[in-house]
Amino acid sequence: MAATESRRTPDSSQRELATTFALLDRNRDGRICANDMKTSMRVLNLPISEQVASNFVKKLAKGGCDIREEEFALWMRTCNDYNNNSILQQAFDALDTNKDGYITKAELQTGLTLLGEVVSDTVLSAMMEEADLDHDNRLSFQEFSHAVSRRA
Ligand SMILES: [Ca+2]
Ligand SMILES: [Ca+2]
Fold first, then answer.
1. Nearest C-alpha neighbor of 115 from the set 57, 34, 49, 71
2. Which ligand is closest to the CA of 96, given by its number?
3. CA 114 from chain center: how many Å?
4. Which ligand is nearest to the CA of 137?
5. C-alpha 99 to ligand 2 mean position (Å)
6. In the predicted model, is pLDDT for residue 136 greater than 80?
7. Is the pTM of this model over 0.85?
8. From ligand 2's centre to the CA of 136, what distance in Å?
9. For residue range 23-59, what is the model confidence (pLDDT) as tens digits?
10. Ligand 2 centroid vs 151 CA: distance in angstroms?
11. What is the pLDDT of residue 86?
């Protein structure tokens, strides 16, 4: 089973969908509103701005204010069809402000500041250190997603 881990099976994406949805649906009402989205990202230490959260919800909910699971599933499928994009990628992109494909400590700090989080340098360094598996002082998407899935 581990040998095929890198390849997506319908089963694993289904599981990923359910996990991601449950993760985002904070109050378990089967819908994700912009607030759920923002809170979840905070809990996961994935700060996204209010703007990003509400745009995302608007986009998926087709003008409504919350996302139902089937809308979410549809979006996940579309994203997977394109470039294996995911909600993590969105969060990653939001943090990677200079779009070089890596999140630096400064970018992480900027993201947190945007959310109104005041994080001490010590905490920030600890977060980076924990996630930065190859110790190059920046987070690749792999390192980022690994860190997040460990928290989930
Ligand atoms: Ca960057
Ligand atoms: Ca790294």
1. 49
2. 1
3. 16
4. 2
5. 15
6. yes
7. no
8. 5
9. 788 788 889 888 888 777 776 666 667 777 788 888 8
10. 18
11. 64
